[in-house]
Write a structure and sequence with these properties.
With 272 residues, the chain is an alpha/beta fold. It has a domain of 178 residues: Vaccinia Virus protein VP39 (Rossmann fold, 3-Layer(aba) Sandwich). Helix content is 39%, strand content 23%. Strands 3-2-1-4-5-7-6 form a 7-stranded mixed sheet, sandwiched between helices. The longest helix has 18 residues. The protein starts with 6 loop residues before the first helix and ends in an 11-residue tail after the last strand. It binds S-adenosylmethionine (SAM). The site of S-adenosylmethionine (SAM) has 22 residues, from helix 2.
Length: 272
């Protein structure tokens, strides 16, 4: 299921996701001539920063949201002299064959229900010797926020909109991920959970985060009731997790970070 994204609003309120993405990008140690695929590129900010790091290479940003790709294209138009291009494409429908040295993805894969087809597509998209660096919500991510949401949903005023609802995110752990990476034919070099402190500027900042990135929950609520719903979740969360002395609201996040590589030759036969 594809969720609606408000690309402009995401662009304005995603400082934290971008900061973590920049940290992740730094771990790639790009030489400058690589071809990079950015899966779930969103508004394109990090993708264009990646393009600046590979002046002799090229970056392709893909995203399943046409709204996100529209904004990326408007903000960073492809064309002569540009080393970035944009495409609306689902992570589960990658159709590249040995085209990329690096696959990068930040804050995307927990939105994807079936990870195996995505990893299979990455394995095919990478050149031999290529590598992937992926960070996504992992096991235990945003547990306090999910608890507040689920508590608010016990109110019949809201639960009536959630008849056939199932938890939309996939928060995997390292062990299950390692198996999927290897099943795709890649070598898993690292898979680990990393704790992060998500900081929002007060009640309004927290509500903006719920509004823009928890839309699988909020979009079920009729528009005229949605703001009330968002602030009920926000207030319930802040009741249990009061703001710090500077008025900032914190949420404990858990990211799954994965590094994988594609072998340069055919896989070695198993010793029997
Ligand atoms: C939180 S944003 C992250 C955007 C960007 N990577 C960043 O760090 O700012 C998540 C993005 O994943 C995209 N996305 C979600 N599911 C996807 C899928 N199955 N295939 C491709 N993109 C997807 C969304 O459209 C959205 O742009």
């Amino acid at each position: 299921m594809a969720y609606e994204w408000n690309a402009e609003e995401y662009c304005e309120t995603s400082g934290q996701q971008k900061a973590w993405g920049r940290e992740l990008l730094g771990k790639l140690h790009l030489k400058g001539d690589e071809r990079v695929l950015d899966i779930g590129c969103g508004d394109g900010t990090l993708t264009s920063e990646t393009a600046a790091l590979v002046p002799d290479g090229f970056v392709v940003g893909i995203d399943s949201s046409s709204e996100m790709i529209r904004l990326a294209r408007e903000s960073y138009p492809p064309g002569e002299g540009q080393n970035v291009s944009w495409e609306v494409k689902d992570a589960g429908a990658l159709d590249y064959e040995e085209e990329f040295d690096v696959v990068f993805s930040n804050a995307v894969f927990h939105w994807v229900k079936e990870h195996q087809p995505v990893l299979d597509g990455i394995a095919l998209a990478l050149k031999p010797g290529g590598r992937a660096l992926l960070q996504m919500g992992g096991k235990g991510n945003a547990a306090g926020v999910s608890d507040s949401l689920l508590a608010v949903l016990t109110d019949p005023d809201w639960s009536k909109f959630y008849g056939d609802f199932s938890f939309p995110y996939r928060f995997h752990g390292p062990d299950e991920y390692r198996i999927m990476i290897e099943r795709a034919g890649l070598m898993c070099r690292r898979a680990e959970l990393i704790r992060k402190d998500m900081v929002q500027e007060g009640r309004e900042g927290f509500a903006a985060w719920i509004r823009t990135t928890w839309q699988p929950f909020t979009e079920r609520i009729p528009e005229e009731l949605r703001e009330r719903f968002i602030f009920e979740i926000t207030d319930r969360y802040i009741d249990g997790h009061p703001a710090d002395p500077r008025g900032r609201v914190h949420a404990e996040m858990v990211r799954l970070e994965v590094e994988a590589g594609k072998m340069t030759g055919p896989p070695k036969p198993l010793n029997r």
